């Protein structure tokens, strides 16, 4: 048990560090290759911060731990919105200026509904996985189109600030890109082994471990990015990261895991976890479009409500662990 806990801690630390280096290297490489900054913000930074979720879920699925893979994907979305957006908004209200973000908000709602429809039969088949990956490819195409034509969007300015803050030569960027990718794979293997061992020791499902410990751990890059961005008043980058991560988790992370190994889905995933994920996404949509009367921002009150929901949800999940033990 102690070895498993140590593996999880070491895996998470290495995972977060390697993901940060991977994203920095990828963003700098893309900039050297002439990619528009808005596209870097939407694709490289937004999707790249979900590299830990992708690595962990793919590893879990290949090892025959579907609950961990699915719990990590959905749990990360819940953590991103309820914990990270909530905590960040309490520090400073998050204003929404980017038109791209206002398009991504309803898109994430639609994608979440598609994901829910796939859960109804109690299984995510390989076909379901490939459908999700196909939709992800289409979303990537749309993101590239938006990034090329939307040069004046505030998200591009926020991404430019981040790239300027971490300048590096092309050779260095490629080195960090490769090192980050390799360490992502190694650390995800370590984390999955430790998480499964803990679940077995406690006698709980790997789904619960994926929804809590692993989801929180793999969401640390988004948390670090959000806190750093709010200090720099880069509000659009905060939500851009969260929405990009949400789209990536819903489509690529879960889709790849199902394509590798069909995932059996417990009923509570649909009625408890997916329902909460949808509710949080709808809440963020309402806040982002200013329907709460707070001028298109996530206010401190909104943040406190989101954080309270996360605490209640996580507390409930941990109570099931205690009762099972």
What does it look like?
This protein is mostly helical and 325 residues long. The chain has one domain: NCX, central ion-binding region (A middle domain of Talin 1, Up-down Bundle). It contains 13 helices and 4 strands. Strands 1-4 form a two-stranded antiparallel ribbon. α4 (66-91) packs antiparallel against α11 (235-260). The two termini are 14 Å apart. It is a multi-pass membrane protein.
Largest sheet: spatial strand order? 1-4
| Proportion of strand residues | under 5%
Distance between the termini: 14 Å
Radius of gyration: 18 Å
Q: What is the top-level CATH class?
A: Mainly Alpha
Tell me the CATH superfamily: NCX, central ion-binding region
Q: Whole-number average pLDDT?
A: 80
Which fold name corresponds to the CATH topology?
Answer: A middle domain of Talin 1
Label the CATH architecture: Up-down Bundle
Q: Compute the number of helices.
A: 13
Let me know the number of strands. 4
The coarse silhouette is: globular
Which bin fits the share of residues in helices?
Answer: over 70%
Name the structural class. mainly alpha
- What order do the SSEs take from the amino end to the carboxyl end, as H and E? HHHHEHEHHHHHHEHEH
- What number of domains? 1
Residue ranges: pLDDT <50 for 5 or more in a row? none
Major sheet characteristics: 2 strands, antiparallel
Membrane topology: Multi-pass membrane protein
Pfam families: Na_Ca_ex
Keywords: Membrane, Transmembrane, Transmembrane helix
Organism: Marinobacter nauticus (Marinobacter hydrocarbonoclasticus)
């Amino acid at each position: 048990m102690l070895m498993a806990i140590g593996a999880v801690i070491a895996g998470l630390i290495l995972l977060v560090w390697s993901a940060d280096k991977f994203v920095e290297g990828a963003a700098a490489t893309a900039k050297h290759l002439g990619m528009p900054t808005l596209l870097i913000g939407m694709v490289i930074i937004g999707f790249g911060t979900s590299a830990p979720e992708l690595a962990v879920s793919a590893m879990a699925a290949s090892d025959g731990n579907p609950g961990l893979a699915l719990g990590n994907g959905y749990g990360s979305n819940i953590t991103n919105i309820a914990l990270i957006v909530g905590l960040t908004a309490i520090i400073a209200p998050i204003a929404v200026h980017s038109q791209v973000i206002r398009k991504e908000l309803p898109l994430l709602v639609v994608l979440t509904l598609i994901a829910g429809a796939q859960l109804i039969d109690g299984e995510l088949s390989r076909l379901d996985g490939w459908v999700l990956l196909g939709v992800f490819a289409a979303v990537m195409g749309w993101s590239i189109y938006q990034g090329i034509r939307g040069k004046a969007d505030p998200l591009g300015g926020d991404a430019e600030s981040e790239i300027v803050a971490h300048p590096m030569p092309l050779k260095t960027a490629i080195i960090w890109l490769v090192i980050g990718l390799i360490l992502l794979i190694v650390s995800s293997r370590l984390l999955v082994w430790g998480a499964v061992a803990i679940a077995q020791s406690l006698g709980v499902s790997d789904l619960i471990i994926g929804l809590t410990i692993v989801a929180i751990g793999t969401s640390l890059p988004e948390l670090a990015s959000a806190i750093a961005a709010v200090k720099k008043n880069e509000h659009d980058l905060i939500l851009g990261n969260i929405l990009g991560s949400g789209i990536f988790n819903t489509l690529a992370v879960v889709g790849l895991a199902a394509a590798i190994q069909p995932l059996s889905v417990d009923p509570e995933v649909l009625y408890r976890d997916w329902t909460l994920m949808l509710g949080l996404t709808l809440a963020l949509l309402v806040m982002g479009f200013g329907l709460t009367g707070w001028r298109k921002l996530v206010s401190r009150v909104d943040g406190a409500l989101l954080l309270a929901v996360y605490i209640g949800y996580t507390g409930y999940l941990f109570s099931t662990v205690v009762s099972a033990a």
